[in-house]
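Agenda item 2: IPE complex prediction
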Amino acid sequence: MDGNGRWAAKRGLPRTAGHVAGAETFRRVATYCKEIGVEYLTVYAFSTENWKRSSEEIEAIMGLFGKYLEEAIRDMEKNRVRIHFFGDLSPLSEPLRDLCAQVEEKSKTFEGVQLNMCINYGGRDEILRAVRAWGENIAAGECSPSDLTEERFSGLLDSAGVPDPDLIIRPSGEQRLSNFLLWQAAYSELYYTDVLWPDFNEEELEKAITAFHSRSRRYGGTK
Ligand code: IPE
Ligand code: MG
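Presented output:
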C-alpha cells in the first residue's frame, strides 16, 4: 500500500494525513475484495525497514493499526473475515500485540475470506526466522537437513497454509518488491500502477484483475 506520503505532499498535508487516507482505502478495498470473492488478501502495512521513519510517523501508523484492530474486534461477527498477521510482532507495543492476538483468536473459525496483515514484516526476516526454526528442529534431533522440502519450508513461514499469491499489486509507480513475500512471490503476477494508494479504489482493482486474466502463466513450462 504505497504512496500515502506523496498523496499527502501533493495536497500540502502532513504525511500522517496520507496514512489516514490510506487506511480508509484499505477498508474500502478489503470490503470490495470480500464482495467479489477474493479468498486471500495480503496487505503490506509496515515493513521491517519502515522503522527508519520519524517517531511521529511511526506512532501515527501504529495508532491507525490500533484503531483498525479495535474496529475489527467490534465488527467481527458482521464481517466474518479471518485475520492473520505476517511479521515479527515482538517490537510492537503490548496493547497492540494484545489486540493482534485477540483479532486472530476471535476470527480463527471464520471461513471464506482471509486477510493477512503484514506488520513489521520483511521477506528476508521471515525466511531467517524459518531457517532458525528449522535449525532448532535439527538441533533437537527431530529431523535432518535433507528432510527439508519446499513444502516443509513453506510451512515454517508466516504464510504457512496460505497459497502463494496469484497477483501482487503495487501502487504509486515503484516497480520493486521491497522485501514483500520474497519466497511466496516466485510465480506471482506483478501489477504496477502509478495510482497512489489513497486514490486506489474498486475500479483500479478491477483493472488489475483484468490485466491478471490476460497473462499467460506457464510456471517455467511451455503451456
Ligand atoms: C505507504 O506509503 C505506507 C507505509 C509504508 C506505512 P508511504 O508512506 O511509503 O508513501 P510514500 O512512498 O512516501 O509516498
Ligand atoms: Mg513508500
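Discussion summary: Residues 87 and 121 are 4 Å apart (CA to CA).
Owner for follow-up: CH.
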